[in-house]
Amino acid sequence: MKINVLILPGDGIGAEVTREAVRVLTRVCDKFGHQANLTEGLLGGIAIHKTGGPLPEETVRLALAADATLMGAVGLPEFDNVAPEKRPEKGLLGIRKVLGVYANLRPVKTYKALIDSSPLKNHLVEGTDMIIVRELTGGLYYGTPRGISGEGDQERGVNTMTYTRAEIARISRMAFHLARNRRKKVTSVDKSNVLETSQLWRKVVVEVAAEFPDVQLDHLLVDNCAMQLVLNPRRFDVVVTENMFGDILSDEGAVLAGSIGMLPSASIGDRKPSGAWAGLYEPVHGSAPDIAGQNKANPLGAIGSVAALLEYSFGLKEEAAAVNAAMEAVLNSGRVTADLKPAGAPATTAEVGQAVCEAI
Ligand code: NAD
Q: Could you read off the pLDDT of 136-192 as tens digits, one per residue?
């Protein structure tokens, strides 16, 4: 299979962890006989330095031509005080829009070797393995009218939460498809006891569920879901929810796994003419200026994003499993970076990447 991927290393540790992720992608393609066609582009602070803007035209062209995009992270402290539209992070919002990705997938999985770094008691968190599917382009963050108007005591802020049937149906279908390849359970999260958007959400999810009789569906109110994530995280397989609820719940889910450096994420759109699913894959973390350039960053979030790319954009489950198994083997071997190993001699970013390649 041809694996056409645009690589956007970005800034700070983004470039360091992406280097290792690319090594792993190349290694897994070699092993399974796929042809990796990798191009590289500019995004974020480095793009501002080289072209004057955070998302150059050339990057847009390359992203549309590729089947999937693998990104590091963007952000440089020198841009902290400039206007939002001139910041590196603007490039990230732009590339998501260009790619038309509407579903953000955040896998939350606890590894045996890291169980002690979870803030929860071991017996609660052990065996947790879920995906939180967050709707990414609708809801409260994009609805209109919005803004602040009036003066004095009458000054008023307004945001609008809005969803169409079509938006709810496409994200629900994505969740059910994912569940089909896992433990066949979808939990839809809403606030239907208060919000009309949630009542429509629940109605449409139930209708879509009829297309997937082999998948079990249950519903949770968002406040109860926030509680269940820490009381009984093992109960979840695929969680699907709207934009703002997903934003909050996915960060809550993130801390279950321990270090932020471990977490991959995937943002998926529609199928491309090639048959692959358009997708943007990136670790959850930022450019970490405090450790940039020191070969200290944990590359496993970026490497986990390679596994997600293989599985979700190209349907290559065996290859994705090989990457995940190699990551687990490396974690068990103790060759891990300082964020996972406060005492003793930690491995470098490059050493962890090399160890994963060897394990594959
Ligand atoms: P951050 O995620 O970059 O760092 C937070 C803390 O976690 C830091 O102490 C850092 O050293 C540590 N950390 C992060 N990733 C790590 C890794 N792989 N291995 C070991 N330790 C790791 O968040 P921040 O400090 O709030 O933001 C720094 C810059 O990154 C800002 O410019 C911000 O806007 C940007 N940012 C970008 C993205 C993105 O590109 N998707 C996401 C978040 C933040």
A: 999 998 899 999 999 999 999 999 999 999 999 999 999 999 999 899 999 999 999
Pocket (CB within 6 angstroms of ligand 1): 13, 17, 73-75, 89, 92, 260-261, 282, 285-291, 297-298, 301, 337, 339
CATH number of 1-102+259-360: 3.40.718.10
Same fold, 1-102+259-360 and 119-257: yes
Burial of 96-127, coded b for 16+ CB within 10 Å and e otherwise, reads: bebbebbbbbbbbbbbebbbebbebeeebbee
Distance CA 298, CA 347 (A): 9
Give the atom of ligand 1 at the shortest distance from the alpha carbon of 77: 32
**218 CA from centroid of ligand 1 (Å):** 35
Distance CA 72, CA 74 (A): 7
| Residues with a known catalytic role | 141, 191, 223, 247, 251
Whole-number Å distance, alpha carbon 291 to ligand 1 midpoint, is: 9
CA 350 remoteness from chain centre: 22
What local confidence, expressed as pLDDT, does residue 112 receive? 85
Q: CATH fold of 119-257, please? A: Isopropylmalate Dehydrogenase (3.40.718)
